[in-house]
Design brief:
The complex is a heterodimer.
Chain A lengths: L6 E10 L2 E11 L4 E5 L6 H8 L7 E6 L2 E2 L8 H4 L1 E3 L12 H7 L9 H6 L1 H21 L15 H14 L4 E5 L7 H16 L3 E5 L3 H7 L2 E6 L2 E6 L1 H6 L1 H8 L1 H7 L1
Chain B lengths: L14 H16 L3 H26 L7 H17 L5 H23 L4 H21 L1 H4 L5 E2 L4 E2 L2 E2 L1 H25 L1 H11 L1 H6 L4 H27 L1 E2 L6 H14 L6 H16 L6 H15 L3 H32 L1
Antiparallel strand pairs in B: 1-4, 2-3
Helix pairs in contact in B: 1-7, 2-7, 2-8, 2-10, 2-11, 2-12, 3-4, 3-5, 3-10, 4-10, 7-8, 7-10, 11-12, 11-14
The chains are: A alpha/beta, B mainly alpha.
């Protein structure tokens, strides 16, 4: 028997009015696994990602994280459970410095609310300075420690992505979910990102990657789920997925798939 | 991994807060004229009102134009609890704050689902309703003439102008310390995160709706404290507390002082309350010059006076970070 999965998506189904956006999608992610989620435009990747991150609830089906069912839990419950995400469109806090953005990843560890904070006034200063050390270490990891005090608008898109990843890592997640991390990056930035994800994988981080860049995802992932028109059409290693007739058909066209076989 | 060699962005010290309070404590010793002390009390009153608004709008990004209503409700409740129920001033203070907290909670539950100008309109409507009730429910509120606020007493004697001033200063000090603690702590960070991007804040585990509600209640309670300060200063509460001129003053103060800054509300209050006094020398041009001053602020100092100073500190912090980076680089080169 294999170890129980860290994330289990079971029969996910999402209907928008008359449109069935996601139809009976199931997959699992094992601890330490890097799973890719790909598909042509409109395949339902983003909707699936949104349901896993709690942004919108599924019409039916279930999502399990570790031993708990989180299907209809709101988005803010994910981070304390050990799930962290990044955003395709960079969503950093523009009024905060780079360092403060990363510190926000540690927010659930701080006392919640004014009275709770005042009650722990003594230990708060220590927690703040330890959190700052940790945030700076994370910025060192993504190579942006010298930007700690800078405003967000001083960053390039590539740097902003890295800050987003550092912010997500700050909560020490057991599952890191990245929404098109390579979108809009140049070659050098994409390579840099790939190396960083490889280091995280070596450290045992479980990851879910939604991506458009096929090259990038083939290199980064252990296994890949391919979706098309809201249905899962393949699930396997990059090599298996590349040979899959349905996958070739979805990406290039039915006739090309027939010609190859 | 070695200890990080880069300095953490310096947490601003609490020192300036004590400087402001020390100046406040010295005022009655320096300025003996009753007029100036009354002016100073008005500065603190508006500073308290604006600190609440600063937290709500400047930091958490929720615009409520209903703050004058909570200001007025606090003052009325403080007076009524003493007059009608015979409560002591201290108990009436706690009671009126609790009352305003409950009212703002009930207002906030449905209204905070609204955003931007919808929230602004809805809270403004609440202010108009509150003002209408204060004006028209004459049997209870005394209508236009309002109600008298019992004078503060100590050992059976009225405490006099200086005593009232220090009472106002004490209340303002509590609000100032809270305001500053919130801004410098992780809670201020959380509020700004909500202002900048609710979805991202939620993904990081921030309970956005709960945070917004808490900030609204806190800012309303601060407005109520300001109302009580006004009540014990002027010894009368009437419907003018929730009229438009209060809202205009509030907005002018936060714009001039700097929205979302640590000391904007205080600096803004000093200017907005004192400036008309200075400008009386200009006679009939007073209003025109006052308006021109506001325009100049809007155009040249979008972050207000306080923003000007705080940004200098930010630059200094950035430079410190950059310097440390260079030192690290030099160290590396020397080693290799």
């Amino acid at each position: 028997m294999s170890v129980p999965p860290i994330l289990k998506v079971d029969g996910l189904y999402k209907r928008f009015g008359g449109l069935i956006a996601i139809n009976n999608v199931s997959f699992e992610i094992a601890p330490g696994e890097v799973k890719g989620l790909i598909g042509p435009n409109g395949a339902g990747k983003s909707t699936t990602f949104d349901m896993i991150t709690g942004v919108r609830p599924p019409t039916s089906g279930d999502i399990w994280f570790k031993a708990g069912r989180i299907t209809n839990q709101p988005a803010h419950t994910r981070s304390p459970l050990g799930m962290a995400r990044t955003f395709q469109i960079v969503r950093l806090f523009r009024g905060l410095s780079v360092l403060d953005n990363v510190l926000m990843g540690l927010q659930p560890k701080f006392p919640d609310g004014l009275f709770a904070s005042l009650a722990r006034l003594g230990s708060l200063r220590k927690q703040e300075s330890e959190s700052r050390d940790k945030a700076i270490q994370l910025l060192e990891f993504v190579g942006l420690a010298d930007r700690a005090g800078h405003p967000i608008e001083a960053l390039t898109l590539g740097q902003a992505r890295l800050v987003d990843i550092a912010r997500a890592l700050a909560s020490e997640p057991q599952l890191l979910m990245l929404d098109e991390p390579a979108a809009g990056l140049n070659d050098a930035e994409t390579r840099n990102l790939g190396n960083m994800l490889a280091i995280l994988k070596d450290r045992g981080m479980t990851m879910l990657l939604v991506e458009h860049d096929l090259d990038f995802i083939m290199k980064a992932c252990d296994t890949i789920v391919v979706m098309d028109h809201g249905v899962k059409i393949a699930d396997g290693s990059p090599a298996e997925v590349c040979r899959n007739r349905d996958v070739i058909a979805a990406y290039i066209g039915r006739r090309a798939a027939d010609a190859e076989h | 991994m070695s200890k990080p060699t880069l300095p953490a962005a310096p947490t601003p010290t609490i020192l300036p807060v004590f400087v402001f309070l020390a100046i406040g404590a010295l005022i009655p010793l320096v300025l003996e004229s009753g007029f100036y002390i009354r002016l100073a009390m008005l500065v603190w009153t508006y500073a308290v009102l604006c600190m609440g608004f600063n937290l709500l709008y400047g930091f958490a990004g929720q615009i409520s134009l209903g703050q004058p209503a909570f200001y007025s409700l606090g003052a009325y409740a403080y007076a009524m609890l003493q007059i009608k129920l015979g409560w002591s001033p201290a108990v009436a203070l706690g009671g009126s704050l609790a009352f305003v907290a409950v009212v703002s909670l009930l207002i906030g539950l449905p209204l905070l689902r609204l955003r931007t100008h919808y929230l602004a309109m809805a809270t403004l409507a609440f202010m108009l309703v509150e003002n209408g009730v204060a004006n028209r429910w004459i049997d209870f509120t005394g209508g236009q003439s309002g109600v008298e606020v019992p004078a503060l007493k100590w050992a059976g004697e009225e405490i006099g102008r200086t005593g009232i001033y220090y009472t106002v200063l004490g209340l303002a000090a509590v609000v100032l310390l809270l305001h500053d603690f919130l801004i410098r702590s992780h809670l201020g960070r959380g509020m700004q995160a909500i202002r900048d991007d609710e979805t991202a804040a939620q993904a990081l585990g921030v309970r956005v709706d709960l945070y917004k509600l808490r900030v609204l209640v806190l800012s309303s309670v601060m407005a109520a404290i300001a109302g009580i300060c006004f009540g014990i200063t002027s010894l009368r509460v009437d419907p003018s507390l929730s009229e438009f001129h209060v809202l205009v003053s509030l907005l002018t103060i936060v714009v001039m002082g700097g929205l979302g800054t640590r000391f904007g509300p205080i600096i803004g209050s000093v200017i907005v309350v004192a400036l008309p006094q200075v400008l009386t020398g200009f006679g009939r041009f007073e209003t025109a010059i006052y308006g021109a001053c506001i325009l100049v602020f809007l155009i040249f100092l979008p972050h207000g006076l306080s923003g000007l100073v705080e940004r200098k500190f930010q630059w200094r912090a950035d430079r410190a970070t950059a310097d440390a980076k260079r030192r690290k680089q030099v160290l590396k080169e020397e080693v290799s």
